[in-house]
Amino acid sequence: MYTNNIQFDAQGNLRHFLSIEGLRREKLVEILDLAESFANIGDQAVKKVPLLRGKTIVNLFFETSTRTRTTFELAAKRLSADVLNINIATSATSKGESLLDMLHNLEAMHCDMFVVRHFDSGAAHFIAQHVAPHISVINAGDGRHAHPTQGMLDAFTIRRHKGDFAKLRVAIVGDILHSRVARSEIHALTTLGTAEVRVIGPKTLIPKEIGTLGVHVYHDMAEGLQDADVVIMLRLQKERMTGALLPSEHEYFINYGLTEEKLACAKPDAIVMHPGPINRGVEIDSAVADGPQSVILEQVSNGIAVRMAVMSMVLGRQQSGELEG
Amino acid sequence: MMKIEIRNGRVIDPANNIDAITPLFISDGKVIALGQAPAGFMAEQIIDASNRLVLPGLVDLQARLREPGLEHKGTIASETHAAAAAGITTLCCPPDTDPVLDTESVAEQMRQRAHSAGYARVIPLGALTAGLKGEQLAEMQTLKDAGCVAMSNARQPIINTLVLRRAMEYAATLGLTVVLHPEDPFLASNGCIHEGAVSTRLGLPGIPECAEVIAIGRDLRLVEQTGVRAHFATLSSARAVEMVAKARARGVPVTADVSMQQLYLTEMDVNYFNSLCHVRPPFRTQRDRDGLRAALSDGVLGAICSDHQPHDLDAKLAPFAATEPGSSGLETLLPLALRLAEEKVLSLSQAIARVTCDPARIFGIDAGSLSIGTRADLCIVDPQARWTISDKTLRSRGKNSPFLGWELSGRVTHTLLEGRVVYQL
After folding, report:
1. What gap in Å lies between CA B124 and CA B121, rounded to an integer?
2. Which fold has domain B57-363?
3. Which residues in chain B have Cβ-Cβ distances shorter than 8 Å to A183?
4. Residues in chain A with pLDDT < 50?
């Protein structure tokens, strides 16, 4: 009842996309390859393929988001699906309606897919467990747990620049504790065979047991960035300044903000990534964010291709032959 | 009153070191003889207990029946009925009812409801502080007179150490036992699962082990200082239990219990957000589970409770952190106690003692034995009968057992309360 394989249907095809944990390397490579085939579609005169014509996709956002929601919407539209955006910035129960009642109402409108962002870890799993059999769920971020399409688009961006994961040293810097992005990146990178994944940050922002996910922990930024091929900066939420996690943004920037000077510890051709939105002068200096090693904006465009790949894979299960075209 | 003979059963009564196949005779609601029928005894009812165990009725130190206040989750009638079906004849109920059990009228109401339902004896635990707010002492003498055997602040923390010290001093004055649930509220914060590998993987806010260890450290010092008799309820960590063991060795008057669930489950059982494993204190590591089992066999953990917390279906139907903690525990208590003997954690007699005479002794309740002349609270169990835990087989209104789907051995066939058959399979 409560196992990860709710992500797969009876034939072993991906029915929901909830977390990267539990997916095999071949499946991740398949997603990356498919995303590659969609990557240049934005440059074409007609930016659409008819793969999901007649399908209805609902973006169900219980937490505000611009980038993720927009790229999911674009991805769905480029696949010719109909898209409905529902923003429930306040809690779903604000009108006394339970999450499940709301889902059943949407199901009754004959939708095919829910793209869900929710502030509770496990929300996407919960929804996937309770939706009607014809509906697929894609996790667009649940609490601190997972943001699997972000993890995949980061892997996609790294692969495009660096190729073979087995030769790479990747450093993830910042608030690992509260970051669903970090968790999904870690699963993606370790599953894809990355040589070393490091996490860097103060002890207040790194869970003690993070090593169980197969990463090395560094508290000193210069040491952690040594010989890194990829540097992923995480967004530092403003609310972390309360609750005694950090003394100030200023002090955080001194120790863990990415400057040109600190970046020099990494390999000269290291790329700099950030899931956005960035806090200039808090976790990253503008000179680096806009510098030659930054691939931050590329990540955004890659997000569309990866989301197209995941959506078409999940919804195109029955007519998988069409995907080849 | 009915005269009953229970024959051919294996009578296990740890309080009296009895383990023998022998007939048991009941009259006027009391056990009147074992072995030989008293002169002139004419049974009006004979129960054949061949191949079955005849045990004292179970004594449960922590069971929430949800009445008054949360009757949609359970009522005294519904939950005592489930208790009878599980062989439990005495239930101690924490004071976090609504209204809080800090007045004699609530205590009186609960006892009356239980009495008219007639399935099990309900013993209220009085509030330690008024409204469980941790500020003002509750009227402990009044509550004691109303039948409360011990005082507890349930799972509400007493943040103010001075208030806790005075509550202990006052309880000690009245010779009352204080029940403590050690958890530092600041370290526990908004956690909903053990802080460890699983919380890290699932991105759920954790409750660190030190939340229990630090709180129990504070509480033990105050117990030593005030001399109150204290009982730690539902411990979850090996280290907390070690601290209790050390304090006991120094002669500090403390006892402790553990919930049956903690003896079988760990953080790993949360798996992918299984809300049935959302409990407080949280299931911890394998090492903790092993430590709890060891403490059970050396007697530092003197009792196993059900920590019964029945819920309505909706309470567990939400993303993990948004679900309500607690599990339905009455009906798995006895089968899982028998399994502890099967797994050689305890001898059969010890395992039964931990859910009968040992808990009764902790709160000074006259129950949990089959001594001649005591109230005939007992259950008859078919230890071989296998059954599957499911929402169909559970009688409690709370179907929220973390053991759903488990196949367990041991089914109660009869339960007697004061010599009256209150349950028959």
Report:
1. 10
2. TIM Barrel (3.20.20)
3. 201, 203
4. 1-2, 91-92, 319-325
Residue B245, chain A, CB below 8 Å: the answer is: no
A4-7 LR contacts (CB < 8 Å, sep 24+): A4/B272, A6/A125, A6/A128, A6/A129, A6/B272, A7/A128
* CATH number of this structure's domain B4-54+375-424: 2.30.40.10
Q: What is the pTM for the complete model shown? A: 0.94
Distance CA B224, CA B172 (A): 11
Is B372 an interface residue toward A (CB < 8 Å)? no
A258-310 tens-digit pLDDT: 999 999 999 999 999 999 889 999 999 999 999 999 999 999 999 999 999 99
pLDDT of residue A237: 81
What tokens were used for A253? 């920037």
Nearest by CB to residue A2, choosing from B203, B206, B272, is B272
Residue with token string 């400057």:
A259
A3 to chain B: which residues are within 8 Å by CB? Answer: 271-272
User: Of B307, B358, B377, B382, which residue is the catalytic one?
Assistant: B307
CATH entry, A148-296, from 2.40.440.10, 3.40.50.1370, 3.40.50.720, 2.60.40.10: 3.40.50.1370
pLDDT tens figures, A146-158: 999 999 999 999 9
* CB-CB neighbours of B91 under 10 Å: 28
What is the value of ipTM here, to two decimals? 0.92
Q: With CB atoms and an 8 Å threshold, state whether A121 touches B320.
A: yes
Q: Does B274 touch chain A (CB under 8 A)?
A: yes
Give yes or no for B40 touching A (CB within 8 A): no
Is there a shared CATH topology between the A4-145+301-324 domain and the A148-296 domain?
yes
| Class of the domain covering A4-145+301-324 | alpha beta
Chain B residue closest in CA terms to A128? B319
* Residue whose token pair is 């006991």: B248
B145 flagged as catalytic: no
